Task: structure prediction
Amino acid sequence: MSKGQIDYFLFKSNSEIINKIRQIDVLDTDPENTSDHVPVILTLNSQLKKVREKATTIIAKPKWTDCDHQIYKEVINKELPKLMQKSKGIIEKDIKNLEKLLHKAGEAAIPKYRRKIKIKSKGKAIWNEQIDKASKQSKNAFKVWRQHGAPQERSNELKIKMTAAKRILRKAQRQAYASQRESTAGKIMKASNSDTKLFYKLINMQRKTPLINTKILKLIEKTAEDGPSIMNIWQEHFQQLATPTIEENFDTEKLELVEIQNNIIESIEREKGKLWILLRNLYKGMSIKVKWEGQCTEDVMVLQGIQQGAKLSTTLYKCYNNVILDSILKSGLGACIGDIQVPAPTCADDIAVLANSTADAQGILDIVQHHTSRDLVKINPTKSEAVLYNAKGSNISTLKFEDNDINITNETKHLGIKRNEQNRANISERIRTGKGNNIQPSWSWVTCQKGILTHGCIQAMENICSTKKHIRT
Result:
Protein backbone atom coordinates (compact mmCIF):
# COMPACT_ATOMS: atom_id res chain seq x y z
CA MET A 1 0.00 0.00 0.00
CA SER A 2 1.11 3.59 -0.55
CA LYS A 3 2.81 4.95 2.59
CA GLY A 4 2.21 8.54 1.55
CA GLN A 5 -1.53 8.30 2.16
CA ILE A 6 -3.43 9.18 5.33
CA ASP A 7 -5.69 6.08 5.34
CA TYR A 8 -4.57 2.52 6.09
CA PHE A 9 -6.12 -0.93 6.35
CA LEU A 10 -4.64 -2.76 9.37
CA PHE A 11 -4.94 -6.50 9.97
CA LYS A 12 -2.88 -9.27 11.57
CA SER A 13 -0.05 -10.70 9.47
CA ASN A 14 -1.14 -14.27 10.23
CA SER A 15 -4.79 -13.52 9.49
CA GLU A 16 -6.71 -15.79 7.09
CA ILE A 17 -7.56 -12.75 5.01
CA ILE A 18 -4.01 -12.66 3.56
CA ASN A 19 -4.56 -15.94 1.74
CA LYS A 20 -7.80 -14.64 0.28
CA ILE A 21 -6.41 -11.39 -1.16
CA ARG A 22 -6.43 -11.51 -4.94
CA GLN A 23 -5.57 -7.90 -5.81
CA ILE A 24 -5.19 -4.44 -4.25
CA ASP A 25 -5.61 -1.33 -6.42
CA VAL A 26 -4.74 2.15 -5.06
CA LEU A 27 -6.35 4.76 -7.29
CA ASP A 28 -4.02 7.62 -6.34
CA THR A 29 -4.01 9.07 -9.85
CA ASP A 30 -7.75 9.05 -10.46
CA PRO A 31 -8.46 12.36 -12.28
CA GLU A 32 -12.04 12.52 -10.98
CA ASN A 33 -11.04 12.26 -7.31
CA THR A 34 -10.79 15.72 -5.65
CA SER A 35 -10.78 14.44 -2.04
CA ASP A 36 -7.79 14.08 0.30
CA HIS A 37 -8.74 10.42 0.57
CA VAL A 38 -7.61 7.95 -2.09
CA PRO A 39 -9.94 5.17 -3.27
CA VAL A 40 -8.65 1.65 -2.61
CA ILE A 41 -10.12 -1.47 -4.20
CA LEU A 42 -9.45 -4.75 -2.40
CA THR A 43 -10.47 -7.92 -4.25
CA LEU A 44 -10.87 -11.08 -2.16
CA ASN A 45 -11.38 -14.71 -3.12
CA SER A 46 -14.44 -16.13 -1.45
CA GLN A 47 -16.77 -19.07 -1.75
CA LEU A 48 -20.52 -18.63 -1.37
CA LYS A 49 -22.45 -21.43 0.22
CA LYS A 50 -26.02 -22.03 -0.80
CA VAL A 51 -28.15 -22.30 2.30
CA ARG A 52 -31.27 -24.36 1.95
CA GLU A 53 -34.34 -22.86 3.48
CA LYS A 54 -35.55 -24.91 6.41
CA ALA A 55 -39.11 -26.13 6.29
CA THR A 56 -41.41 -24.91 9.04
CA THR A 57 -43.51 -27.47 10.87
CA ILE A 58 -47.07 -26.44 11.62
CA ILE A 59 -50.26 -28.13 12.77
CA ALA A 60 -52.72 -28.49 9.89
CA LYS A 61 -56.19 -27.04 10.17
CA PRO A 62 -58.81 -29.74 10.90
CA LYS A 63 -61.10 -30.68 8.00
CA TRP A 64 -64.45 -30.08 9.64
CA THR A 65 -66.22 -31.18 6.48
CA ASP A 66 -64.97 -34.74 7.22
CA CYS A 67 -66.02 -34.60 10.88
CA ASP A 68 -68.33 -37.31 12.24
CA HIS A 69 -70.66 -35.06 14.25
CA GLN A 70 -72.26 -37.95 16.12
CA ILE A 71 -68.94 -39.21 17.52
CA TYR A 72 -67.85 -35.66 18.31
CA LYS A 73 -70.99 -35.03 20.39
CA GLU A 74 -70.79 -38.42 22.14
CA VAL A 75 -67.22 -37.84 23.37
CA ILE A 76 -68.06 -34.37 24.68
CA ASN A 77 -71.31 -35.45 26.36
CA LYS A 78 -69.51 -38.38 28.01
CA GLU A 79 -66.46 -36.49 29.34
CA LEU A 80 -67.99 -33.08 30.13
CA PRO A 81 -69.80 -34.15 33.38
CA LYS A 82 -66.54 -35.67 34.70
CA LEU A 83 -64.73 -32.46 33.85
CA MET A 84 -67.27 -30.35 35.73
CA GLN A 85 -67.00 -32.60 38.82
CA LYS A 86 -63.21 -32.21 38.92
CA SER A 87 -63.41 -28.43 38.58
CA LYS A 88 -61.96 -26.48 41.50
CA GLY A 89 -63.12 -23.07 40.31
CA ILE A 90 -59.77 -22.09 38.78
CA ILE A 91 -60.73 -20.57 35.43
CA GLU A 92 -57.35 -20.98 33.70
CA LYS A 93 -57.16 -24.67 34.61
CA ASP A 94 -60.78 -25.30 33.60
CA ILE A 95 -60.17 -23.70 30.20
CA LYS A 96 -57.12 -25.90 29.60
CA ASN A 97 -59.06 -29.04 30.58
CA LEU A 98 -61.91 -28.03 28.26
CA GLU A 99 -59.42 -27.48 25.44
CA LYS A 100 -57.99 -30.98 26.00
CA LEU A 101 -61.52 -32.41 25.88
CA LEU A 102 -62.26 -30.70 22.55
CA HIS A 103 -58.99 -32.03 21.09
CA LYS A 104 -59.88 -35.52 22.32
CA ALA A 105 -63.27 -35.30 20.60
CA GLY A 106 -61.60 -34.02 17.43
CA GLU A 107 -59.10 -36.89 17.37
CA ALA A 108 -61.95 -39.36 17.64
CA ALA A 109 -64.24 -37.77 15.05
CA ILE A 110 -61.92 -36.17 12.44
CA PRO A 111 -59.40 -38.16 10.34
CA LYS A 112 -55.80 -36.93 10.60
CA TYR A 113 -56.76 -34.44 13.29
CA ARG A 114 -54.03 -31.84 14.11
CA ARG A 115 -51.45 -33.64 11.99
CA LYS A 116 -48.08 -31.92 11.60
CA ILE A 117 -47.02 -30.77 8.14
CA LYS A 118 -43.92 -29.04 6.79
CA ILE A 119 -44.24 -25.90 4.69
CA LYS A 120 -41.75 -23.75 2.82
CA SER A 121 -41.95 -20.10 1.93
CA LYS A 122 -43.10 -19.55 -1.64
CA GLY A 123 -41.52 -16.12 -1.99
CA LYS A 124 -42.84 -12.63 -1.43
CA ALA A 125 -46.07 -11.35 -2.92
CA ILE A 126 -45.93 -8.72 -5.65
CA TRP A 127 -45.47 -5.21 -4.29
CA ASN A 128 -44.86 -1.94 -6.06
CA GLU A 129 -45.36 1.79 -5.63
CA GLN A 130 -48.94 1.75 -6.90
CA ILE A 131 -49.96 -1.12 -4.58
CA ASP A 132 -48.23 0.57 -1.63
CA LYS A 133 -50.09 3.83 -2.24
CA ALA A 134 -53.44 2.09 -2.80
CA SER A 135 -52.92 -0.05 0.33
CA LYS A 136 -52.34 3.00 2.54
CA GLN A 137 -55.40 4.75 1.12
CA SER A 138 -57.52 1.64 1.66
CA LYS A 139 -56.36 1.29 5.28
CA ASN A 140 -57.02 4.98 5.99
CA ALA A 141 -60.51 4.79 4.45
CA PHE A 142 -61.27 1.66 6.52
CA LYS A 143 -60.00 3.36 9.69
CA VAL A 144 -62.20 6.42 9.17
CA TRP A 145 -65.19 4.18 8.41
CA ARG A 146 -64.66 2.23 11.65
CA GLN A 147 -64.20 5.43 13.69
CA HIS A 148 -67.63 6.64 12.57
CA GLY A 149 -69.43 3.52 13.71
CA ALA A 150 -68.92 1.32 10.61
CA PRO A 151 -72.18 2.32 8.85
CA GLN A 152 -73.52 -0.43 6.57
CA GLU A 153 -75.81 1.69 4.36
CA ARG A 154 -74.71 1.57 0.72
CA SER A 155 -75.51 5.26 0.30
CA ASN A 156 -73.22 6.26 3.19
CA GLU A 157 -70.35 8.43 1.93
CA LEU A 158 -67.69 6.74 4.10
CA LYS A 159 -68.89 3.29 3.00
CA ILE A 160 -68.66 4.38 -0.66
CA LYS A 161 -65.14 5.79 -0.19
CA MET A 162 -63.95 2.64 1.59
CA THR A 163 -65.37 0.41 -1.15
CA ALA A 164 -63.80 2.57 -3.86
CA ALA A 165 -60.41 2.44 -2.10
CA LYS A 166 -60.59 -1.38 -1.88
CA ARG A 167 -61.50 -1.55 -5.56
CA ILE A 168 -58.47 0.59 -6.47
CA LEU A 169 -56.19 -1.67 -4.38
CA ARG A 170 -57.49 -4.85 -6.03
CA LYS A 171 -57.10 -3.20 -9.43
CA ALA A 172 -53.45 -2.33 -8.70
CA GLN A 173 -52.79 -5.91 -7.57
CA ARG A 174 -54.40 -7.38 -10.69
CA GLN A 175 -52.34 -5.06 -12.89
CA ALA A 176 -49.12 -6.09 -11.11
CA TYR A 177 -49.85 -9.81 -11.57
CA ALA A 178 -50.84 -9.21 -15.20
CA SER A 179 -47.55 -7.38 -15.77
CA GLN A 180 -45.67 -10.30 -14.19
CA ARG A 181 -47.45 -12.80 -16.44
CA GLU A 182 -46.72 -10.63 -19.47
CA SER A 183 -43.04 -10.45 -18.50
CA THR A 184 -42.85 -14.22 -18.05
CA ALA A 185 -44.49 -14.79 -21.43
CA GLY A 186 -41.99 -12.41 -23.04
CA LYS A 187 -39.07 -14.27 -21.46
CA ILE A 188 -40.45 -17.58 -22.70
CA MET A 189 -40.73 -16.28 -26.26
CA LYS A 190 -37.17 -14.90 -26.22
CA ALA A 191 -35.71 -18.00 -24.55
CA SER A 192 -37.36 -20.32 -27.08
CA ASN A 193 -35.04 -18.90 -29.75
CA SER A 194 -31.82 -18.43 -27.81
CA ASP A 195 -31.64 -20.24 -24.45
CA THR A 196 -33.17 -23.73 -24.45
CA LYS A 197 -32.33 -24.37 -20.78
CA LEU A 198 -34.04 -21.16 -19.63
CA PHE A 199 -37.00 -21.88 -21.90
CA TYR A 200 -37.78 -25.25 -20.31
CA LYS A 201 -37.15 -23.81 -16.84
CA LEU A 202 -39.79 -21.13 -17.40
CA ILE A 203 -42.22 -23.64 -18.90
CA ASN A 204 -41.88 -25.89 -15.84
CA MET A 205 -42.45 -22.91 -13.55
CA GLN A 206 -45.70 -22.18 -15.36
CA ARG A 207 -46.82 -25.82 -15.11
CA LYS A 208 -46.11 -25.98 -11.39
CA THR A 209 -48.37 -23.02 -10.61
CA PRO A 210 -51.26 -24.56 -8.64
CA LEU A 211 -54.87 -23.78 -9.47
CA ILE A 212 -56.64 -23.39 -6.15
CA ASN A 213 -60.38 -22.84 -5.94
CA THR A 214 -61.90 -20.88 -3.11
CA LYS A 215 -63.21 -22.83 -0.13
CA ILE A 216 -65.74 -20.16 0.90
CA LEU A 217 -68.13 -18.29 -1.40
CA LYS A 218 -70.46 -15.47 -0.32
CA LEU A 219 -73.42 -14.00 -2.16
CA ILE A 220 -75.12 -11.10 -0.37
CA GLU A 221 -76.03 -12.72 2.99
CA LYS A 222 -75.49 -16.35 1.94
CA THR A 223 -72.27 -18.24 2.69
CA ALA A 224 -71.20 -21.62 1.29
CA GLU A 225 -68.29 -23.74 2.52
CA ASP A 226 -68.75 -27.05 0.68
CA GLY A 227 -68.91 -28.07 -2.98
CA PRO A 228 -72.70 -28.49 -3.43
CA SER A 229 -73.49 -25.24 -1.58
CA ILE A 230 -70.91 -23.31 -3.61
CA MET A 231 -72.40 -24.66 -6.84
CA ASN A 232 -75.88 -23.58 -5.73
CA ILE A 233 -74.65 -20.05 -5.06
CA TRP A 234 -72.94 -19.93 -8.47
CA GLN A 235 -76.17 -21.07 -10.11
CA GLU A 236 -78.20 -18.45 -8.24
CA HIS A 237 -75.70 -15.72 -9.14
CA PHE A 238 -75.73 -16.46 -12.87
CA GLN A 239 -79.51 -16.88 -12.85
CA GLN A 240 -79.80 -13.33 -11.48
CA LEU A 241 -77.49 -12.04 -14.23
CA ALA A 242 -79.43 -13.88 -16.94
CA THR A 243 -82.89 -12.75 -15.77
CA PRO A 244 -84.21 -9.24 -16.58
CA THR A 245 -85.12 -7.07 -13.59
CA ILE A 246 -87.45 -4.08 -13.65
CA GLU A 247 -86.29 -1.19 -11.46
CA GLU A 248 -88.08 2.03 -10.56
CA ASN A 249 -86.08 4.24 -12.94
CA PHE A 250 -86.63 1.92 -15.93
CA ASP A 251 -88.96 3.00 -18.71
CA THR A 252 -91.15 -0.03 -19.49
CA GLU A 253 -92.98 1.66 -22.40
CA LYS A 254 -90.31 0.59 -24.89
CA LEU A 255 -90.45 -2.98 -23.56
CA GLU A 256 -94.14 -3.17 -24.36
CA LEU A 257 -93.58 -1.71 -27.84
CA VAL A 258 -90.73 -4.14 -28.54
CA GLU A 259 -92.89 -7.14 -27.62
CA ILE A 260 -95.63 -5.94 -30.02
CA GLN A 261 -93.01 -5.27 -32.71
CA ASN A 262 -91.45 -8.72 -32.32
CA ASN A 263 -94.83 -10.43 -32.69
CA ILE A 264 -95.51 -8.47 -35.89
CA ILE A 265 -92.07 -9.25 -37.34
CA GLU A 266 -92.42 -12.94 -36.46
CA SER A 267 -95.80 -13.19 -38.22
CA ILE A 268 -94.33 -11.55 -41.33
CA GLU A 269 -91.08 -13.53 -41.36
CA ARG A 270 -92.77 -16.90 -40.84
CA GLU A 271 -94.35 -16.58 -44.25
CA LYS A 272 -91.03 -15.72 -45.90
CA GLY A 273 -88.79 -18.01 -43.84
CA LYS A 274 -86.16 -15.31 -43.40
CA LEU A 275 -83.13 -15.13 -41.12
CA TRP A 276 -84.94 -13.24 -38.35
CA ILE A 277 -86.65 -16.46 -37.24
CA LEU A 278 -83.29 -18.29 -37.27
CA LEU A 279 -81.68 -15.59 -35.15
CA ARG A 280 -84.63 -15.60 -32.74
CA ASN A 281 -84.39 -19.37 -32.37
CA LEU A 282 -80.67 -19.16 -31.54
CA TYR A 283 -81.53 -17.22 -28.39
CA LYS A 284 -84.91 -18.71 -27.56
CA GLY A 285 -84.66 -21.28 -24.78
CA MET A 286 -80.90 -20.75 -24.42
CA SER A 287 -79.31 -22.11 -21.24
CA ILE A 288 -75.89 -22.38 -19.60
CA LYS A 289 -74.27 -24.47 -16.86
CA VAL A 290 -71.61 -23.57 -14.30
CA LYS A 291 -68.76 -26.05 -13.93
CA TRP A 292 -67.11 -26.22 -10.51
CA GLU A 293 -64.43 -28.74 -9.55
CA GLY A 294 -65.49 -31.15 -12.28
CA GLN A 295 -69.22 -30.92 -11.47
CA CYS A 296 -71.92 -29.01 -13.38
CA THR A 297 -74.93 -27.16 -12.02
CA GLU A 298 -78.42 -27.51 -13.38
CA ASP A 299 -79.43 -25.48 -16.45
CA VAL A 300 -79.57 -21.70 -16.02
CA MET A 301 -82.04 -20.16 -18.47
CA VAL A 302 -80.58 -17.09 -20.24
CA LEU A 303 -83.35 -14.52 -20.75
CA GLN A 304 -81.18 -11.50 -21.58
CA GLY A 305 -77.78 -10.60 -23.03
CA ILE A 306 -75.78 -12.11 -25.90
CA GLN A 307 -73.76 -15.31 -26.11
CA GLN A 308 -70.15 -15.12 -24.97
CA GLY A 309 -67.61 -15.98 -27.66
CA ALA A 310 -70.18 -16.32 -30.45
CA LYS A 311 -69.26 -14.76 -33.82
CA LEU A 312 -72.54 -12.87 -34.08
CA SER A 313 -72.33 -11.39 -30.56
CA THR A 314 -70.10 -8.42 -31.45
CA THR A 315 -72.32 -7.49 -34.42
CA LEU A 316 -75.51 -7.82 -32.38
CA TYR A 317 -74.06 -5.65 -29.61
CA LYS A 318 -73.01 -2.99 -32.14
CA CYS A 319 -76.59 -2.89 -33.46
CA TYR A 320 -77.79 -2.16 -29.93
CA ASN A 321 -75.05 0.28 -28.92
CA ASN A 322 -75.19 2.20 -32.20
CA VAL A 323 -78.59 3.65 -31.23
CA ILE A 324 -76.99 5.42 -28.25
CA LEU A 325 -74.06 6.71 -30.32
CA ASP A 326 -76.36 8.00 -33.09
CA SER A 327 -78.47 9.88 -30.53
CA ILE A 328 -75.35 11.53 -29.07
CA LEU A 329 -74.17 12.50 -32.56
CA LYS A 330 -77.55 13.95 -33.60
CA SER A 331 -77.74 16.03 -30.42
CA GLY A 332 -74.82 18.19 -31.60
CA LEU A 333 -73.26 18.05 -28.13
CA GLY A 334 -69.63 17.26 -27.40
CA ALA A 335 -66.23 17.84 -28.98
CA CYS A 336 -65.48 18.60 -32.63
CA ILE A 337 -62.44 18.69 -34.92
CA GLY A 338 -63.33 21.23 -37.51
CA ASP A 339 -66.71 20.07 -38.80
CA ILE A 340 -66.20 16.49 -37.59
CA GLN A 341 -68.07 15.57 -34.43
CA VAL A 342 -66.18 13.33 -31.97
CA PRO A 343 -68.38 13.38 -28.84
CA ALA A 344 -68.03 9.70 -27.91
CA PRO A 345 -65.05 7.62 -29.18
CA THR A 346 -66.04 4.00 -28.60
CA CYS A 347 -64.47 0.56 -28.64
CA ALA A 348 -66.89 -2.28 -27.93
CA ASP A 349 -68.75 -1.15 -24.77
CA ASP A 350 -66.00 1.23 -23.61
CA ILE A 351 -67.15 4.81 -24.26
CA ALA A 352 -65.30 8.06 -23.56
CA VAL A 353 -67.48 11.19 -23.55
CA LEU A 354 -65.62 14.27 -24.85
CA ALA A 355 -67.01 17.77 -24.37
CA ASN A 356 -65.77 21.35 -24.17
CA SER A 357 -68.21 22.29 -21.39
CA THR A 358 -69.77 20.71 -18.35
CA ALA A 359 -73.23 21.35 -19.78
CA ASP A 360 -72.40 19.35 -22.93
CA ALA A 361 -70.96 16.49 -20.91
CA GLN A 362 -74.03 16.39 -18.65
CA GLY A 363 -76.30 16.46 -21.70
CA ILE A 364 -74.54 13.42 -23.20
CA LEU A 365 -74.77 11.56 -19.90
CA ASP A 366 -78.50 12.31 -19.80
CA ILE A 367 -78.89 10.86 -23.32
CA VAL A 368 -77.11 7.66 -22.27
CA GLN A 369 -79.22 7.44 -19.11
CA HIS A 370 -82.42 7.85 -21.16
CA HIS A 371 -81.53 5.01 -23.52
CA THR A 372 -80.27 2.63 -20.83
CA SER A 373 -83.42 3.12 -18.74
CA ARG A 374 -85.58 2.28 -21.78
CA ASP A 375 -83.38 -0.74 -22.59
CA LEU A 376 -83.58 -2.00 -18.97
CA VAL A 377 -79.80 -1.68 -18.62
CA LYS A 378 -78.12 -0.54 -15.41
CA ILE A 379 -74.70 1.19 -15.39
CA ASN A 380 -72.59 1.48 -12.25
CA PRO A 381 -71.76 5.22 -11.86
CA THR A 382 -69.08 4.52 -9.24
CA LYS A 383 -66.91 2.97 -11.97
CA SER A 384 -67.13 6.13 -14.09
CA GLU A 385 -64.65 9.00 -13.81
CA ALA A 386 -64.22 12.53 -15.20
CA VAL A 387 -60.93 14.25 -16.08
CA LEU A 388 -60.61 18.01 -16.54
CA TYR A 389 -58.18 18.55 -19.39
CA ASN A 390 -56.06 21.67 -20.01
CA ALA A 391 -58.04 23.97 -17.71
CA LYS A 392 -55.71 25.71 -15.27
CA GLY A 393 -57.59 27.51 -12.52
CA SER A 394 -60.98 26.23 -13.68
CA ASN A 395 -63.43 24.44 -11.42
CA ILE A 396 -65.59 21.74 -12.91
CA SER A 397 -69.21 21.53 -11.89
CA THR A 398 -70.63 18.28 -10.56
CA LEU A 399 -71.53 15.68 -13.18
CA LYS A 400 -74.34 13.27 -12.37
CA PHE A 401 -75.57 9.94 -13.70
CA GLU A 402 -78.77 8.53 -12.25
CA ASP A 403 -78.57 11.02 -9.35
CA ASN A 404 -75.04 9.82 -8.50
CA ASP A 405 -72.02 12.12 -8.67
CA ILE A 406 -69.30 11.17 -11.15
CA ASN A 407 -65.88 11.01 -9.49
CA ILE A 408 -63.59 13.90 -10.58
CA THR A 409 -59.98 12.72 -10.87
CA ASN A 410 -56.72 13.91 -12.42
CA GLU A 411 -56.07 10.59 -14.15
CA THR A 412 -58.10 7.69 -15.50
CA LYS A 413 -57.77 4.77 -17.89
CA HIS A 414 -59.47 4.31 -21.24
CA LEU A 415 -58.76 1.22 -23.35
CA GLY A 416 -55.87 0.37 -21.03
CA ILE A 417 -54.11 3.73 -21.56
CA LYS A 418 -53.82 6.29 -18.77
CA ARG A 419 -55.33 9.69 -19.57
CA ASN A 420 -54.35 12.66 -17.42
CA GLU A 421 -55.10 16.36 -17.17
CA GLN A 422 -51.58 17.33 -18.35
CA ASN A 423 -52.07 15.53 -21.70
CA ARG A 424 -48.87 13.56 -21.20
CA ALA A 425 -48.63 10.01 -22.49
CA ASN A 426 -46.22 7.23 -21.64
CA ILE A 427 -45.17 6.00 -25.08
CA SER A 428 -43.63 2.72 -23.89
CA GLU A 429 -46.80 1.94 -21.95
CA ARG A 430 -48.90 2.57 -25.07
CA ILE A 431 -46.76 0.21 -27.13
CA ARG A 432 -46.89 -2.46 -24.43
CA THR A 433 -50.66 -2.11 -24.12
CA GLY A 434 -51.08 -2.26 -27.88
CA LYS A 435 -49.08 -5.49 -28.07
CA GLY A 436 -51.15 -7.02 -25.31
CA ASN A 437 -54.42 -5.89 -26.97
CA ASN A 438 -55.69 -4.81 -23.58
CA ILE A 439 -59.29 -3.62 -23.88
CA GLN A 440 -61.20 -3.04 -20.65
CA PRO A 441 -64.99 -3.63 -20.80
CA SER A 442 -66.11 -0.71 -18.64
CA TRP A 443 -67.68 2.71 -18.99
CA SER A 444 -65.43 5.72 -18.38
CA TRP A 445 -66.49 9.32 -18.72
CA VAL A 446 -64.07 12.08 -19.77
CA THR A 447 -64.97 15.78 -19.93
CA CYS A 448 -62.83 18.79 -20.68
CA GLN A 449 -62.91 22.59 -20.74
CA LYS A 450 -60.78 25.20 -22.54
CA GLY A 451 -59.54 22.63 -24.99
CA ILE A 452 -61.05 19.42 -26.22
CA LEU A 453 -58.16 17.30 -27.50
CA THR A 454 -57.90 14.63 -24.84
CA HIS A 455 -56.22 11.27 -24.57
CA GLY A 456 -59.68 9.77 -24.89
CA CYS A 457 -59.74 10.54 -28.60
CA ILE A 458 -56.17 11.43 -29.50
CA GLN A 459 -55.56 8.15 -31.34
CA ALA A 460 -58.58 8.78 -33.56
CA MET A 461 -57.72 12.45 -34.00
CA GLU A 462 -54.01 12.46 -34.70
CA ASN A 463 -54.63 11.02 -38.16
CA ILE A 464 -57.12 13.80 -38.94
CA CYS A 465 -55.25 16.95 -37.93
CA SER A 466 -51.74 17.68 -36.72
CA THR A 467 -52.19 21.10 -35.08
CA LYS A 468 -54.55 22.54 -32.50
CA LYS A 469 -55.53 25.36 -34.89
CA HIS A 470 -58.10 23.06 -36.51
CA ILE A 471 -59.91 22.48 -33.21
CA ARG A 472 -63.09 24.44 -32.59
CA THR A 473 -63.32 25.70 -28.98
Q: What stands out?
A: Residues 436-473 have pLDDT under 50 and may be disordered.
